[in-house]
């Protein structure tokens, strides 16, 4: 039974908050989670429909020993991807290509990876770093769609030091930095052969959120519809509890600047990006006989335009990734929009967004059939902009905050559930 006075208060019941709450309970601490909404989960939900599962955010998580340990403690079995999911495509020259570089571009990249110092220069953007280290072709054909798909950002506005710094610590060529990073992780537990890559759960990625919520609620306490405006107000009721903020970037800044003057200057400087996802169910596949994980669409780094005028950043082929994701004979494709250069789409109506999806699909697959259904999700503040301002904010978080106040989230250690999970285990001494 939870103590009436908790050892640890966590603000936010999304993936980050629930993981930290669970790990705190594992250490024998009493926990209270305060959530602004009337439900847990944050961005992540797995919605069952008559045609198949819809993932409102992440459709999987990169496997790691921390996920294996957490899933085991929660009694969850990991779902591994089908062999077809190994195929990832980039749209180039009106085709879905697994490697859009020609032989000369591959040679240029190999030469750079072997010779050019790869440690980011302070103040260097991802675009400038890519141009210097990888070459123009690799930058535009692979790095831009890859990072644009993950971070939804403008490579000119993204800090190379922030995004790549933990992988590229020495002023040596790329291959040496990657080798050094791999060596630094040798002491971590190894995954068994065949257990690497993107994984999920039978009921979708939301299954782990549901299991975490149930465990935290049974061993600790979760209060919903609790809006926290300042740490000072929280301290009046819980003067001795340690506090973890696990909210989105804008909410975190709002709470912190009410207590710490050092963070007031970041108001208006820390930007976030909208993301729109549309899961489309139909009887045909845009891959037309092929199979794979998904396809990314390179964007011009200034105009954000793409070949054929495709507005989507990428498409996930859900039924080819994990088995059991759709009803028999149904295909599921998730179109991803928004981010830098396309903020406007988040203000469109659901019908307008669906029309954009069908227009994009028609350009790629003119003979496509009529869809069965669409499921639209709009997140107006989904992702932070990983720029120099956010980099400075993170350094100030480490410098200013006392030991009993921590801030966690997708703006701290890198984007993605794996990064959040790895940092949570590290912060909790596991």
Automatic annotation (TrEMBL):
* A Pfam family per the record: Amino_oxidase
SUPFAM superfamilies assigned: FAD-linked reductases, C-terminal domain, FAD/NAD(P)-binding domain
Transmembrane parts of this sequence: none
Domain (Amine oxidase): residue spans on this chain: 16-246, 302-392
Q: Which domain of life is it from?
A: Bacteria
Classification via InterPro entries: Amino_oxidase (IPR002937), FAD/NAD-bd_sf (IPR036188), Zeta_carotene_desat/Oxidored (IPR050464)
Q: Which PANTHER family match?
A: PROTOPORPHYRINOGEN OXIDASE (PTHR42923:SF3)
Protein name per Swiss-Prot or TrEMBL: Protoporphyrinogen oxidase
Q: Which organism is it from?
A: Leptospira langatensis
Lineage of this protein's species?
A: Bacteria, Pseudomonadati, Spirochaetota, Spirochaetia, Leptospirales
């Amino acid at each position: 039974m939870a103590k009436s006075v908790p050892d640890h208060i966590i603000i936010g019941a999304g993936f980050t908050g629930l993981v930290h709450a669970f790990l705190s309970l594992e250490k024998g601490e009493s926990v209270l989670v305060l959530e602004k909404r009337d439900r847990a989960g944050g961005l992540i939900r797995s919605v069952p429909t008559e045609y198949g599962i819809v993932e409102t955010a992440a459709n999987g998580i990169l496997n790691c020993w921390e996920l294996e340990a957490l899933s085991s403690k929660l009694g969850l079995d990991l779902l591994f991807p089908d062999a077809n999911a190994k195929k990832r495509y980039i749209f180039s020259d009106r085709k879905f290509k697994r490697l859009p570089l020609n032989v000369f571009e591959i040679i240029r990249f190999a030469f750079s990876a072997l010779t050019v110092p790869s440690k980011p220069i302070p103040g260097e953007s991802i675009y400038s770093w890519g141009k210097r280290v990888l070459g123009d072709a690799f930058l535009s054909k692979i790095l831009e769609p890859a990072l644009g798909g993950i971070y939804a950002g403008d490579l000119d506005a993204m800090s190379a030091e922030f995004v790549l710094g933990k992988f590229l610590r020495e002023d040596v060529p790329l291959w040496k930095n990657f080798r050094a990073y791999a060596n630094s992780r040798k002491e971590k537990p190894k995954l068994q052969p065949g257990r690497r890559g993107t994984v999920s759960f039978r009921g979708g990625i939301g299954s782990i959120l549901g299991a975490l919520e149930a465990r935290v609620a049974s061993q600790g306490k979760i209060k919903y519809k609790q809006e926290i405006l300042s740490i000072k107000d929280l301290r009046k009721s819980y003067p001795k509890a340690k506090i973890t903020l696990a909210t989105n970037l804008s909410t975190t800044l709002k709470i912190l600047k009410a207590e710490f003057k050092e963070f007031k200057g970041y108001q208006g400087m820390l930007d976030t990006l909208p993301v729109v996802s549309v899961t489309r169910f139909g009887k045909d596949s845009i891959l037309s006989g092929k199979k794979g994980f998904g396809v990314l669409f390179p964007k011009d780094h200034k105009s954000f335009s793409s070949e054929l005028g495709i507005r989507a950043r990428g498409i996930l082929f859900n039924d080819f990734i994990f088995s059991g994701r759709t009803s028999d004979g149904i295909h599921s494709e998730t179109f991803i929009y928004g981010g830098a250069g396309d903020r406007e789409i988040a203000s469109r109506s659901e019908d307008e967004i669906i029309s954009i999806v069908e227009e994009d699909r028609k350009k790629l697959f003119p003979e496509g059939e009529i869809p069965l259904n669409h499921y639209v999700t709009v997140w107006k503040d989904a992702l932070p902009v990983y720029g120099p301002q956010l980099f400075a904010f993170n350094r100030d978080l480490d410098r200013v905050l006392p030991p009993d106040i921590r801030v966690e989230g997708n703006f701290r250690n890198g984007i993605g559930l794996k990064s959040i999970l790895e940092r949570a285990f590290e912060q909790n001494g596991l």
